Amino acid sequence: MISFKNIWTIAKKELRAYFDGPTAYVVLAVFLFLWEFLFFRDAFLVGDASLRNLFGVLPWLCIVLVPAITMATISQEKNEGTLEFLLTHPLRDLELILGKFVGATAFLGVALAFALPIAASLARFGHLDWGVVVGQVLGGLLMGMTLIALGILVSSLFKSPVTALLISAVAAFFLIVAGSDLVTGALPLALAPIFEQLSVYTHFDSMSRGVIDLRDLWYFISATAVFLMLALLQLYRRRYGNRKSVYGRFRTGIILLVAIVILADIVGARIPGRLDLTQDRHFTLSTATRQTLDKLPDVVRVNVYITGKLPSQFQSVIRDIKDLLRDYQTYGGGNVVVTYKDPTGKTDVATEAQQNGVAPIQFNVVGQEEYQRQNGYLGLYISYAGSHVAIPVIQDTSDLEYQLTSDIKKLTDKEKKKVVFLSGHGEAVTSTSSKVLAGELGKEFDVSDLDLTQANATIPADTAAVVLGGPTQKFDDKSLGALKEYLYNGGSALFLIDNLQASPQTQQATPNANSFADFLKDYGVQVEPSLAYDLHSSETVQISDGNNVTLMPYPFWLDAVAGPDGAQLLGGGRGPTFPWTSPITLDDATLKQKGFAAAKLLVTTNYGGSSADSNVGINKQFNTSDLGVQLLAVSLTANAKASNGQRTRLLVIGNSRFLGDNFLNNSPTNAAFASQIVGLLAQEDSIAALRLRRAQDIKMRFDNNTQISLVKYGNLALAILLPLLYGAFRLWRRRRQKKQTYSSAKV
User: Fold this and answer.
1) Which of 591, 602, 655, 654 is nearest to 629 (CA)?
2) What is the pLDDT of residues 623-645, one digit of tens each?
3) What is the per-residue pLDDT across 670-729, written as a single tens digit (0 to 9) for each?
4) Which pTM value belongs to this model?
5) Contact at 8 Å (CB) between 405 and 289?
6) Domains of the chain by start residue, with CATH
7) Could you give the 3-state DSSP secondary structure of residue 245?
8) Measured at the alpha carbon of residue 203, what is the angle toward residues 201 and 209, in degrees to the nearest 5?
9) Euclidean distance between CA atoms 432 and 437, whole angstroms
10) Which of 53, 70, 545, 583 is deepest in the core (most CB within 10 A)?
11) Residue 171 · residue 71 · CB < 8 Å
């Protein structure tokens, strides 16, 4: 039986060997300084509350750190002649290997633990997904365990620790880059997937997203077990080398175990299963998707065209595509049929792909010491009842569930709810003028324009929601009467009110006398004749003087955040960007009198304000003394039902420009938000929430530059000073203990 006490004894011996000398503290401090310096160098340029870049460089630093930890584990014991001394004690060879492995892993765990203070400091100033952090730390630890096992194997082969260090670094480098284009580009087609599966970086990168995949987990466990068993075989060879029959039995047994583990790893790589640790379960099918699949009236067919050999950066994309489509098949209950086709060398399949809208694209690959261009396919085709739609290219899967579900709904929903854009009053946003918005809404709704100024024009009773997007002309009595009648009968409406119209050319804002804001006063909603700004949550714009380009925050282009009642609307993701929007105030007495309940959906941060002057220039000096939360979007719901059983719903935003085509092309989150709020008004579970919940890179918000410096230099100081101070204290205490003498007790 294996003695865990012996394993722990060896592990403690290893840890004492690390921490009883100055080398370990210097190595740890240098590693942590480089690790955190490379992260903080540009962490605040983008400002996302994420450790993605911190763990992105970890594998490359481990090429140096892990060999430094493991180089002396076995080789130094051999060199000093203490290995035989250890093995003559009641200690099994396996216990020695496992003890050294546990000790080295504990040392690495201490190094990785310094990521937690960084995570805590970023979480203080932004929305940090701790599920992703857990996946990153766990992935880093498992990757490190695999490299440690490799280092112990190399150390068991040599007497010189320096030789073990160099060979371990080379072996670790190969294990990391095995799946890159640098290696696979020069391999035959049949071998490329094997090397991609062999790469430790591929599995670490997958787990760093916050997903614990059974295949990644089994890879790390099996690779670690193989390296440790091969190291154990070296000890058996040293112990039983002169007894060939005994050593032969051990060798045969270990080789069989290694073969079994490798075979199990090959089989396990085909077995799906994952635990989604992300806060909003990004890699789990949403409720809206499951409901869509559950209601499928007939079979939806998905043909996936994937070239057999694509650059390594697409391998994780391919795996995510297959995992996602497997989930679609599971929840589709037989109504989703997925077929995979490789057009490589098959003219008929390539022709079929192009006829179905999936055209070949060019990839840059590395091969024969030069960059080469390679044609390939990575797209899919969805068909249902004679209708079809294609996704020509899939470059990442962050938005794939939204695309698939919206396309399936578009093909299978025969009776969509009606959404009407009102026109005839100089509206800035209609389905005709805002084609991007109309295209997004058209995936879920039947979208059309309605000119209320036309004779006998009325809003159809079966309209789920109307949109009034930035009117600039006065409503006549007939048009106003038609809208009031629709709302009186339980209708729903989205009002986009432009009280001030800003011009980027003149950098001036002019009043809009016909903004329709007066109509909303009767419901207790006042769209103020001013512009909101946010000093801590705004977009960065480029300013050019002809020679140089400067990036500057522009507080009038503010990034809205969820209000007290808006968290579910945004699905935990980031809010839309509003350019030149007006703040909103509520009249509680009028709301109560009219019988409406208000919900505050979107607001600014605590550093918001409002400006009533006409200057909207980039160099405007904003008031910083009277800041607070500004209300940006509000919804009203009637307490009583109309005669048809519906409740009147209104949603008011002091801006229409955020839904213009020129703005939506650069901000897909805005289009998804528009679909979500229209779905809210139409009482339809909109799939736009899928896109919103994917927008998780929430920016950090600092009060001043001092806080940025504290986060950056505080963590760097902690990483350097803590190991060195603890090392100095421990070495000082050891010297004191060595000076102590024992005296005989007095009788």
Assistant:
1) 602
2) 888 899 999 999 999 998 888 88
3) 887 888 888 888 876 556 555 555 545 567 777 778 888 899 999 999 999 998 898 888
4) 0.74
5) yes
6) 4-279 (no CATH), 287-404 (3.40.30.10), 417-694 (3.40.50)
7) helix
8) 100
9) 9
10) 70
11) no
